[in-house]
């Protein structure tokens, strides 16, 4: 419109800081990483173009596939346990009409950094002095090596991840429950439906868009797990908890092979994009059964 014709310079001036930050901290690193994935780059030397050489190495790298399988196992545990616990917690909060203060306290673990979470729980789960193992020793007679056992390492890390994200996910699901009309449940009670039946046939279908969003966010954050693993197990014991991010970090900052690390990062990005797209398509994220 003629009245707003001269607003464009002011608009560009206002968004200039955001554009500069996007270009410097996102666009350039992304393009630089894409270029390095096709090169052999060891920091102290100039990048040498090798085409698809890194990708050929990727397909024959047994440690990469092992790390990917460990990551998938971790993600599966985090998603299944996290969504179930968050959903049940949100439904209980919704039915009991808990105060806003309690709901606010539930989100506190999400606000704690991953490093602090890992440190606190590593102390609590210590096999000798941790309060959890002190109680387990009194009950069973022996401690559990939560971070020192190959069988327990990944489930324990997934449990920490669930504890940290459960409150945030529960608040999101609780907000979705607020949008479901109470008349839906009244009609269900009139038809003689029990609470478990209404949960399975009414609550879950009507929450599909929110649940899909929670699942997608949980999958993405779980695939990117690093800080908790680095502080607690460092990928051990015997690489039992060496997730893909740990392997990428080791290649880049331990072996200074930034070209191959960039290739693995690109592969992780493509994998996350494919998984997210498949989830949104299969779960019909934009639909619910309200009608």
Automatic annotation (TrEMBL):
CDD domains linked: TM_PBP2
Q: In which broad location class does this protein mainly occur, judging by the first location in its UniProt entry? A: membrane
| Annotated localization | Cell membrane
Residue ranges constituting the ABC transmembrane type-1 domain according to the UniProt record = 64-279
Question: PROSITE patterns annotated for this entry?
Answer: ABC_TM1
Q: How does it sit in the membrane?
A: Multi-pass membrane protein
InterPro entries the UniProt entry points to: ABC_transporter_permease, MetI-like, MetI-like_sf
Pfam annotation, one family:
BPD_transp_1
Can you tell me where the transmembrane regions are?
Answer: 12-31, 64-93, 105-124, 144-163, 206-226, 258-278
- Keyword set, alphabetical order: Cell membrane, Membrane, Transmembrane, Transmembrane helix, Transport
Family under the similarity heading: Belongs to the binding-protein-dependent transport system permease family.
Show the PANTHER family listed in the entry: ABC TRANSPORTER PERMEASE PROTEIN, DIACETYLCHITOBIOSE UPTAKE SYSTEM PERMEASE PROTEIN NGCF
> Can you say what this protein is called?
Sugar ABC transporter permease
Please name the source species.
Amycolatopsis nalaikhensis
